Amino acid sequence: MGALIQVKVDRRRANEILQVVSKFLKKHRIVRGMIAYSVLWPVGSMVQQTFEGKSFREFDWKRILRFCLYGTLIQGPALYCWMRVANKMWPRSDIRSALAKAFTEQVAFDPFSISLFLYAMTIFEGKTHEQARREVSSKFLSIYAIGLVYWPITQTINFGFVKPKNQVIYVSFASLIWTTFLAYVKAHPIDEETKEKVKVAIEKRYEHLKEVVEHVKHPKHE
After folding, report:
1. Which spans are transmembrane here (predicted)?
2. 66, 104, 112, 177: most buried by Cβ count inside 10 Å?
């Protein structure tokens, strides 16, 4: 009988703790994003290392830790701040607002985010400012070109159909795929021929995005 009472008490305490945690996370959404990224970013690094043919015992745990620190302390808060700014600038949840947010993210937030990732992760590796600067210069365009395709689709869905309170979580899961890609690019050099192809692709993509935005602003009536 005493054991049964103790179990009920423990359950009650567990429920109380869960309620407190739930209220805290609802009030402080930035923490939700930080927790999500503290898991998803190192997992992305693990997935990428698995693609390299490494087993669990062969993982580069220092690299995984760097991804965990970056996701928790930098990417999570940065993305949360961007979401707040975007939702204040375009509070409506229609397709035009969603496209405007996605386009603005491509030309404003993403270049900052990619550059910060390459620079900070290189510094985390114990390298110098000059080495970090060269890393950004060498790999930025290649990452940005892929992002020009991937993120407009992802963020249009996010801004257009996902409730604001769940947007950071939604993007966290989309970021698992993106982080795996980032981990690959960070670990491998990019040749000059690829860089030239990327520049051409970015120019074409920008022209396409401009046409889409112009069409949304001024739709043609047949």
Report:
1. 64-86, 106-124, 136-153, 168-185
2. 66
Distance, in Å, from the CA atom of 113 to the CA atom of 153, rounded to the nearest integer, reads: 18
pLDDT digits (tens, 9 = 90+) for 50-102: 988 999 999 999 999 999 999 999 988 998 888 888 888 888 777 778 778 87
Q: Name the residue with tokens 């795996």.
A: 180
Task: Give the DSSP per-residue string, the chain.
Answer: -HHHHHHHHHHHHHHHHHHHHHHHHHH-HHHHHHHHHHHHHHHHHHHHHHHTT--GGG--HHHHHHHHHHIIIIIHHHHHHHHHHHHHHS---SHHHHHHHHHHIIIIIHHHHHHHHHHHHHHHTT--HHHHHHHHHHHHHHHHHHHHHHHHHHHHHHHHHS-GGGHHHHHHHHHHHHHHHHHHHHHS---HHHHHHHHHHHHHHHHHHHHHHHHHHSPPP-
Q: What are phi and psi of 125, to 5 degrees?
A: -75, -5
